[in-house]
Amino acid sequence: MKLVKNYFSASFLDLTFFRYLSSSIFGSIISLVTGFFTYRYIEPSLIGIWALFSILEVYSTFSRLGVINGLGRELPYLLGKNKLDEAKKIASTALGYSILSNSFLFIILPVFIYSFEFDPNNSSHICSLLVIIFRVLFSSYTNYLSVTFRTGESFIDLSKIQNVLSGIKLLSLPLVIYWGFYGLLLRELLLSLLEMVFFHIKRPLKVKVGLEKISFLSLIKVGFPLFIVSYLFGIIETFPRLYIAKFGTISDLGLFSPVIIILGIAVILPNSIVSYMYPKMSYEFGQHDNKRKLWDVVKFTALISLLSSIPMCLVVYFVADQVTWLFPKYTASVPYLKISAFSLLFIGYKSSGLTFSVLKSWNVMILNSIVFLLVSTFSMFIIQIYFKDALEVASYSIIITYGFMFFFSLGLAYFELHKKTKI
User: Fold this and answer.
1) Contact between residue 364 and residue 222 where contact means Cβ atoms under 8 Å apart
2) Of 2, 6, 215, 370, which is most buried by a Cβ count within 10 Å?
3) Mean predicted confidence (pLDDT) in 21-30
4) Listed residue (66, 73, 69) closest to 87, CA to CA
5) Is 328 helix (H, G, I), strand (E, B) or coil?
6) What's the pTM?
7) Collapsing DSSP states into helix, strand and coil, what is residue 198?
């Protein structure tokens, strides 16, 4: 009770938080329904193609060099220091660079096409690539806008946008029903475009496009370490898919897609909590420089993540058997769904890491990332000795990696917030 009381008294948990959280939960339910509904109409091999091309979205973010990450940390911190002019200046610079960074996409595109044996005569390859290109272009502006939603009022607007997008996601299912895989591509393109448009309409910080040198260097200085860690995490999270693509087939990757979508939906809850708490913690730290006060937020977030994941784990494990008659094309996915269900218990393994961002604890962030890389890599290396099925190797590796990192990151956060000297 003392923990809950402290958490409420810190003014981090209020009605706005619950509105934002409820919209995220609603969105995750809609994503679950529409995701598996999609699998009823599309062959695993085609889903595998989409999953493979989606990896380009992760790698394309390298062009942003941490500018958006820096803005996400510095904007609420400067607002907490009441430095409004400086806050607007870095926002203007971040916007300018976000637009400029799109040019990098056309540098890495040939590398991606060569690496994944792109077939120019295959219409599914061509259409998937085109949709991914537009999604990457849209996301550069959308990601900039998303980190400017930092006040209570803006989070209310963000909640409304999430609800509207969830409704559109549900109502756009007929595109998949009537046009199959190409309907899915059109739907993904439409959702990405509308998300950008809605964010633009409700943007809380209206600034002109700029590219001021001092602000840019300041954002790089803070954001690049954050970006490297975030980018590394994103790459490592693709390892299971890359392993399947290397040692399995495209159809295998398609069969693994239900696992990917379940993990993607389950992480919405802890990510939503982090998205809300991160600016609050930065603002709080900017005002009072009190590290100990942040620990209540960290441990409460970890506890909520763990407790909320238990019912998700049980539901996925026992409902997975129904895939046989609901989605006959994905019957072979059932064993991997049941294995991966246990990884949901630790789906909030990245939540504690926000502490290192707030404190600018670069050394600790790097240590956390290196451990993540080693655990993910060596777990697959060891598991493949005992299991020859690429999908089994990927599934068990995810459980081990998520579980280890959940407790390791939480321990690092505790020591970082309770030590007397800064790194």
Assistant:
1) no
2) 215
3) 77
4) 73
5) helix
6) 0.68
7) helix
